[in-house]
Amino acid sequence: MTRITVTVDGVKYTDDVEPRTLLVHYLRQNLGKTGTLVGCDTSNCGACTVHLDGHSVKSCNMLAVQADGHEVTTIEGLASDGQLHPMQLAFNDCHALQCGYCTPGMIMQACDLLKDNPDPSEQEIREGLEGNLCRCTGYHNIVRAVQEAAVTMREGGATTDSTAPAQAVTA
Amino acid sequence: MTITENQAPAHEIGRARRRKEDARLITGRSRYTDSITLPGMLHLAMVRSPFAHATIRSISTEAAKAAPGVVSVVTGADIADIQGVNINAWPITTDQVTPTHLPVAIEHVAFAGEIVAVVVARSEAEARDAVELVDVDYDELPVVLDAREALKDEVLAHPDLGTNKSAFWQLDSAAQGSGGDVDEAIEKARTDGILIEREYRQQRLVPGFMEPRSVVVDPTGDQLTVWSATQVPHILRFAIAATMGIPESKLRVIAPDVGGGFGGKLQTTPEEFATIALARRLGKPCKFTETRSEAFVTGHHGRDQYQKLTMAATTDGMITGFKVELIADLGAYVAIVGGGVPVLGAWMFNGIYKIPAYQFNCTTVLTNKPWVDAYRGAGRPEAAFGIERMMDELAGEVGADPLEIREKNWIKHEEFPFTTVSGMTYDSGNYEAATARAKELFDYDGLRREQAERRERNDPVQLGIGVSTFTEMCGLAPSRILGSLNYGAGGWEHASVRMLATGTVEVVTGISPHGQGHVTGFSQIVADRLGVPFEDVEILHGDTAIAPKGMDTYGSRSLVVGGEAVVRAADKVIEKAKVIAAHLLEASADDIEFSGGRFGVKGTDKGLGIAEIAAATFTGHNLPDGIEPSLDADATFDPVNFSFPHGTHLCAMEVDTETGAATMRKYACVDDVGVIINPLLVEGQVHGGLVQGIAQALWEGAVYDENGTLVTGSFVDYTLPSAADTISFITDTTVSPSTTNSLGTKGVGEAGTIASTPAVVNAIVDALRPMGIHDIEMPCTPERVWRAIQGASSRSVDETQRDAAPHFEADQPNQDPSATTGGAK
């Protein structure tokens, strides 16, 4: 067992883990962060994408011990001060999710994409999300959501009340 | 929430409501099966056969049993009396050959990936470690992998059955009186008409839902509770009760959040049965979650047909007969729908056309590959592909525009309802309107001009335009028809509507959504029907203790059948409330009018809201004599007919004749799915469906090596499209209300997938038709397109005429075999 200290969604955890434990399994099984999901075993699907020190990583593709001393943000820690992230709101507004399984990873990757490129073209969005698979949406509305979030974030990151997002945003 | 003051809007149906489901899914508050952990829970891992066909000589479990954390290791023989059996619910003929499918094999394995032993340990990692320590001694047997090869019965997938042929099923229009004799039509066309004979391959596909299947079983309560990543909790409960010796009343099956299905999760699986057997045997909660690699080799696959199609027509392009001969690969076992999937094509190969004579023949065969069952569309994509590809071939033969040939043969909008040559009565449709709108959105004429220009100047990048004017049958299914087809269940759906004391509404439905947005759509329906706010409607589903009756979600049935059950239950609530309203308003029930959530007395301004009636019913202080203090109502709806959505899909592909690369330039579609409850949900279903169908045309295919090992066994090799592979689509709708349900809905879940595959292939073939090419096998990889161009008899593009420079010396060793045999086969 190896002792690690990781800050996850703003909370500092110290745990003994088997050295072979993947970061995603540490998040899900040790910390109960089940919002982060596992969709494959070859690091292709991106369902497990989280931020490590602010940049997206596939948490099935690194060991928990590699996160020692680092800061991890999962989908569960993306909203701040009770406000949903503009990307979360845009996914709801643009119907960019159906079954929801790819959604946590897709949102985390999309946030990272906009951090690198706040004003991406459609093609840049598509290529920026290439490592995240979705079987439901055909990507059409995911691209639209990222475009919408990009506009919101460039205009100052205004968000609406996060207490009831699905109800708050209607046609 | 306390008593609500939300105001109901005038109309919810037709609004692009954002989904209620999203709030938890975008914040990580999801509850998928693998996220469930119970106290003392044990973890299962499966020992699987690496061989596609073998007998099991012996299994040594001693080393695994001694491994750290291992609680139990069992073989099929150890649990023979408690493991149940995986059933086929639709034997397509009474003499169908159906191999027994044990969850854990005992003596014989018939595909690579079949379970031979189960390890139970305290952690998932310990269970998987111990799998490596189970020593299984196999005697390998010869494999049969190809369906046509299997029909020769030279190598048997199951030697004890004596044959690979499972069943033969025929629909003949002359025999059933719905049309003429197809062979006569063919003979006539052979002498004085057009006869088109083609063979198409529907390759094997992997459903590829994003959530791997998972099952958790808790045996510690009075009822055995099963959580499963399934589309069919009710059917699963029935199958467990029917085969495992557990009374149905002692079983609770829950489908929590389910991450996609596309048919791939309508199976009742060996893994579910094995987990139940072990949980019962050990008396402890057990979980099994498959890896993605396991999902590829053991989950059921889709399609896998050989289609031999013969179309007879007059010289000016009027179809006179159509004969379909299918060979359908069932894999090693007949799955729950099994041979019923290709048989569903029987009523769809005639498409939207008036065909005088028709015959559908389907032979189902067993091979040493994983089982085949429903995958988005289930029998209908295969049929739509066949007929829509043939319509383009007919157009090519006549030398007419593919849309003109279709219009010449399709059912005109004034001819509905129309009974087709296969015997189905199409309730409504307007192919002219959908096609006109699609042509406009696509700029059909402009792209045809560009195509002509590129041909004229021998552009190395040719443009092809593909057409697909598909229809499908949705709303599965009228129980009487299912009965006549020897299907093992009905096709009805159930709903309950419960008026709560504070005015909010609980709706219980027997459908089992897994991404479609039914909670949002059904809320809109009930909000309109009862005149209550959208926000005040809660939809409950996917738990047999909460929604005890249901037939679950597949076959674009949820809205058409399940939605109608909800409507009928809501109408019963209104009728019950009307009696109480009349009493409270001191009026005759005949004088009570219900509108916008309010019971009013005709000709007066007196009235009560439905929430007030609910509160009065709750207290029961002042009800009419003999009236029960409840507004709640149930309804079970059995449809009398299917519904028939249709649409016109147009696809432009740019085909690089030098490299074979085919790139999508534009895709426009106009679907008629009847009345639309929520246009946002419809668009989402169409987009996702399109990409799955496009992926069959361009990228996906399960490939096996000669030993029966799946070569495309991960997302590395089985190429699900990413955002970078796809484009944005132009979608629109026309509305021909269905006449088979009160909302006028038709179903949309499978439309995009059914329509898009032939549109894409037609476009690629259209680009290359001047070269004499009339087919490319799917997936239309650059290599296949390039080889077709190289092999074409007349090439119109000079650059493709020269052969590639030789890379190797002839007759020298160490040459790359893929350069000569082709790796993508």
What does this structure look like?
The complex is a heterodimer of chains A (171) and B (825). Chain A folds into 2 domains: 2-77, Roll (Ubiquitin-like (UB roll)), CATH 3.10.20; 86-154, DNA polymerase, domain 1. Chain A has 6 helices and 5 strands. Chain A has helices spanning 23-30, 86-93, 103-116, 122-128, 140-154, 165-168; strands at residues 2-8, 11-17, 49-52, 55-58, 71-73. Chain A has a 5-stranded mixed beta sheet with strand order 2-1-5-3-4, sandwiched between helices. Chain B has a domain at 22-29 and 492-637: Aldehyde oxidase/xanthine dehydrogenase, molybdopterin binding domain (Aldehyde Oxidoreductase, domain 4, 2-Layer Sandwich). A 7-stranded mixed beta sheet of chain B has the order 3-5-1-12-9-10-11, sandwiched between helices. A 5-stranded mixed beta sheet of chain B has the order 7-15-14-13-8. Chain B has a 4-stranded mixed beta sheet with strand order 18-26-27-28, sandwiched between helices. The model of chain B is unreliable at 1-5, 799-807 and 814-825 (pLDDT under 50). The chains are: A alpha+beta (171), B alpha+beta (825).
